[in-house]
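Journal club prep, shared notes

We agreed each person brings one worked example of a sequence with its structure written out as tokens. Mine is GDSL esterase/lipase EXL3-like. I'm keeping it raw so we can talk through how to read the token line rather than staring at a rendered picture. Sequence first:
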Amino acid sequence: MRSSPSPSATSLPMARISSMDPREAQGLGVKELIPPYLGVDLSPEDILTGVSFASGATGYDPLTSKLLNVISMKDQLKLFTEYKERLFAIAGAERGAEIISQALFVVCAGTDDVANTYFTTPFRKNYDIPSYFSHDYLILHTQLIQELVGMGARKIGFVGLPPIGCVPSQRTLGGGILRQCEASRNQAAQLFNSKIQKVVQSLAAEFAGSKIVYIDIYSVILDLVQRPSYYGFKESAKGCCGTGEIEATLLCNSKTATTCSDVTEYVFWDSYHPTEKAYRVIVDNILKKYQKFLI
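Then the structure, token by token:
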């Protein structure tokens, strides 16, 4: 997503701007829906005003994208290189470089590294959480930002992890009979966030001419879970789809799952993803904290 006098949007790998009110999007200079770079016929206007390289369920751990057969971070950067060529062909090199330098890049990944690769599969069990988030893991974040800056990015928002242990599916898998928020997953998210903040601060100092900012979502999502009624919700431990305890993504469809009668009462749509109403709360929180960076 992006905000500038000449709107363009670039996000790696997940940006949920569809939850934003159209007036809010317009206020930031961002179109309401950002089209995916792959899978659709993009018009020149789409190229000029922004696309998404999002690949849901990818991660910084290279194993995550392989396990779930999604586009890796490395390959998303290759797609961005291809996008740059198309942009420059339309706008010219000088104008294209200006669009990229004014664009806001949103980097949001890591939840699936923790929830899926680390806790659900046996492949990383030889690591404890601190060693999993080791130098080798963190260097991937450093390299990603360095490559983006090298390709012309000057505004980069690095989104932290949510309280993963409070997501309905993780409560089911690790929260016991009462399905409490699972502490070790939340601790992993907090450790990740603390380490990434330091990486971002270091890179912001290294690239003084760029704006590189850590975006916290842990606090607002935890508050949504702990105080749902404050935000107008009735249910925060289950999703609207099916039982609300384990179904997610493809398992939430008209043939295999029912849905709740009123989705606006739920913080989560399925066992993994917030509802549109919850996303509005999250986006509002982000805008209040980081609006000076976004515009």
